[in-house]
Write a structure and sequence with these properties.
The chain is built from 13 helices and 14 strands. A hairpin with an 8-residue loop joins strand 7 and strand 8. The longest helix has 19 residues.
């Protein structure tokens, strides 16, 4: 990639979230959307309308994603994948094998085994993989991670997080409540932001996890309670309620020996209360940047990858443990000690 040649990108999935990305991307002179892969005729029609609104011709559509990569892959630099969770691993792996850089919608994959294999594919092909988690891409979370890694706040003692939404009614009848397509319910959809942001902030794997998932008569989890202990000994609690009144919000508090940090699962805010202060105060941080612009900056080497697959692996290990514990009625799951090791180069890149 050069600063003068537009990045040629394709979309696998052109639903509501994809069109939100496209709305910002179509006005950029440094980006050319070459083609889309969308099996839903109404979704493709809505995408074509969006192109028309920007005065652009409708992109060609190949509904089969494997054929899409075969036909259009040689003319692309990157692909954006925004599909049901169960497809992420296969589609991202195939795109990397095709020599494409990948911006992958959350959650990265369904299991830790898939995450490990996807990282191996990324490393072998030399491709770029950025996971589109708003939390990790938020300047507030990046600054919070920097503060926690710097040592100036002391070690982490406890982390408390909660996320809530009227998710059960909003997603009724959609693939998000189909276990085969989604891999989980509220905690693996909206709640995935909480799992990821916690995994990013603490910078280490969990050593022990106990969890309870309640489906409230639906095919997937709607409410969740998770308790965990990090390898360092810090304690973590996470609560998710997908049957809240119409709303969508969150709160994360990190307690260290020298301060209290407060943010949200999307990194929408950042406050700190240091020892000796009476209240939380806003932390100044740089302005936010659209997801696609961050992806372009990572490709160009202007910034480190703020949301690498290593954080996705840490979250996948946590999710595996949550499901195992919940299936056992809340039994404590102990993660292998080897899983807690994070190479220094990864820790440094995530903290940057």
């Amino acid at each position: 990639m050069t600063d003068t040649a537009p990045t040629r990108v394709g979309f696998i999935g052109a639903g509501v979230m994809a069109r939100a990305h496209l709305e910002l991307m179509l006005a950029r002179p440094d980006t050319t959307v070459v083609a889309v892969c969308e099996p839903s005729a109404p979704a493709y029609a809505a995408t074509a309308e969006l192109f028309d609104h920007h005065g652009l011709p409708s992109p060609p559509n190949e509904p089969d994603w494997e054929r899409f990569l075969e036909v259009f892959g040689p003319g692309l630099d990157a692909v954006v994948i925004i599909t049901p969770h169960a497809f992420h691993f296969g589609q991202a792996s195939a795109a990397l094998e095709a020599g494409l850089d990948v911006l992958l919608e959350k959650p990265m994959v369904m299991t830790a085994d898939e995450a490990t294999e996807l990282i191996a594919t990324r490393d072998r092909t030399g491709g770029l993989l950025v996971v589109a988690f708003q939390g990790s891409l938020s300047p507030q979370v990046r600054e919070a991670s920097r503060l926690l890694r710097s040592g100036e706040l002391g070690p982490i003692l406890n982390v408390s997080a909660v996320a809530w939404q009227n998710w059960a009614t909003l997603t009724e009848g959609t693939w998000r409540q189909d276990p085969a397509a989604s891999g989980g319910g509220f905690l693996f959809d909206t709640g995935a932001h909480m799992l990821n942001t916690i995994s990013d902030l603490v910078g280490e794997d969990f050593a022990e996890v106990a969890a309870w998932l309640e489906d409230d008569g639906r095919p997937v989890d709607i409410r969740a309670a998770v308790m965990g202990r990090l390898a360092s000994g810090a304690l973590v609690t996470m609560t998710g309620c997908g049957r809240a009144i119409p709303s969508c919000h969150s709160d994360i508090r990190v307690f260290t020996t020298e301060a209290i940090l407060r943010t949200g699962i999307w990194g929408e805010t950042l406050e700190i209360q240091r020892a000796g202060q009476a209240r939380l105060r806003p932390v100044r941080s740089v302005a936010g940047m659209p997801v696609w612009e961050q992806f372009l900056n990572v490709r160009a080497g202007r910034i480190p990858n703020p949301s690498p697959a290593e954080v996705g692996l840490r979250m996948a290990r946590l999710w595996d443990a949550i499901r195992e514990s919940a299936a056992g009625g809340g039994n404590v799951v102990r993660l292998p000690a080897a899983a807690t090791a994070v190479p220094e180069r990864i820790a440094d890149a995530v903290a940057s």
